[in-house]
């Protein structure tokens, strides 16, 4: 088997569209990286969506 690339860094983003976290190791399965994008914000007013750092700059650090 030939090497086609190497992993330089592993990152996961537990909350959609928010800051990620660097990982030393992780499990990757059919659903992707374990814990990645498993959470999201909810709003009782659906007109306020999508609720992301792109649409709501005040969410950025």
Describe the protein's architecture and organization.
The protein has one domain. It is built from no helices and 4 strands. The chain has strands at residues 10-12, 21-23, 28-29, 32-33. The strands form 2 sheets. A two-stranded antiparallel ribbon has the order 1-2. A two-stranded antiparallel sheet has the order 3-4. Strand 3 (28-29) and strand 4 (32-33) form a beta hairpin. The termini are far apart. The mean pLDDT is 80.
Total domain modules: 1
Integer average pLDDT: 80
Q: What is the end-to-end distance?
A: 43 Å
Secondary structure: helix percent: under 10%
Over the alpha carbons, how many angstroms does the gyration radius reach?
Answer: 16 Å
- Provide the spatial order of strands within the biggest beta sheet: 1-2
Question: Can you count the helices?
Answer: 0
Q: Report the sheet with the most strands, covering strand number, pairing sense and barrel closure.
A: 2 strands, antiparallel
Overall 3D shape: elongated
């Amino acid at each position: 088997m030939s090497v086609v690339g190497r992993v330089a860094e592993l990152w996961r983003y537990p909350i959609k569209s928010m800051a990620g976290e660097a990982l030393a190791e992780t499990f990757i399965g059919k659903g992707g990286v374990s814990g990645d994008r498993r959470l999201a914000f909810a709003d009782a007013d659906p007109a306020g969506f999508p609720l992301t750092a792109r649409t709501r700059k005040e969410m950025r650090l």
